[in-house]
Write a structure and sequence with these properties.
This protein has 285 residues and is α+β, with helices and mostly antiparallel strands. It has two domains: 2-129, Gcn5-related N-acetyltransferase (GNAT) (Aminopeptidase), CATH 3.40.630.30; 136-280, Aminopeptidase (3-Layer(aba) Sandwich), CATH 3.40.630. It contains nine helices and twelve strands. It has a twelve-stranded mixed beta sheet with strand order 1-2-3-4-5-12-6-11-10-9-8-7, with helices on both faces. Strand 4 (70-75), helix 4 (83-94) and strand 5 (107-109) form a beta-alpha-beta unit. The protein starts with a strand and ends with a strand.
Length: 285
Amino acid sequence: MTIREPSVTDLPEVIDNVATWQAEGQPVQVHPGDLGWYQRFGAAALASALRVWVLDDEIVAVGFLDESELIRMAVSPAQAYDAPLAEAIVIDLSGALSDLLPPGKGIVEARFGPALRNTLAEAGWTTDEPWTQLRRELSDPIPPVPLRIDVVTPDRVEDRIDVEAAAFPGSSLTLERWAAMADGYAYRQARCLVGYTETGDAAGATTVWSAGRGRPGLIEPLGVDAAYRGRGFGVAMAQATASTLRAMGASSVTVATPSSNTAAVATYRAAGMDSLGEVTDFRRP
């Protein structure tokens, strides 16, 4: 078992592995869309934010350093109950990655993989912030969306950037970063959408990510301009993601949001998504 930091040229292999690990009936774990969204900071930044665990030349787990002192894990379903792998990962989290995950601050998101979750708990990692996971089956009918929905193209990015900034103060998305994201390997199976009101105003925006036909898709992120909130546009945008992902061949649309963000949970529920329950991250003792 070895842990390594991939190179830029390794990114397609890592993303393809994470894509094949997405399956219906299991908790929402790190998705190709999470990696694709991060690539707005560039391919080199994404590669440096990843760690892969390799067994017999096969990638069996991926760690994604999404924020300072936070690593989000994806585990191959074939190794979900692999205790030796789980023990090796936990040793690395407290050893090789100890500078990134210091005691008392380091957070691990491990939503899938019973062996890893059990080993973290046995090693004294405690529960952290609860998240609500939501999902909508795409074989069900999707109501018409009361907004004009446009797919963003390279020559029409400004509205996508503007809505992101209006929805999320301090947004990191710029024209240059959108181009870096759109140039990424994961974005080949993604779409940016902008929703317009009857008067032609850009009110909502989102990016949806497919993991391939017959696999769960992901919303990352979705926002509504603060000036247009309270008018049902968030629900409409969430419904638009379902329609788009179904057209792309996804089996479902999924999203995870902090349980404390009750407005977001309510919006997704109103858009026809079912709660899969809460799951907590792990904090290093």
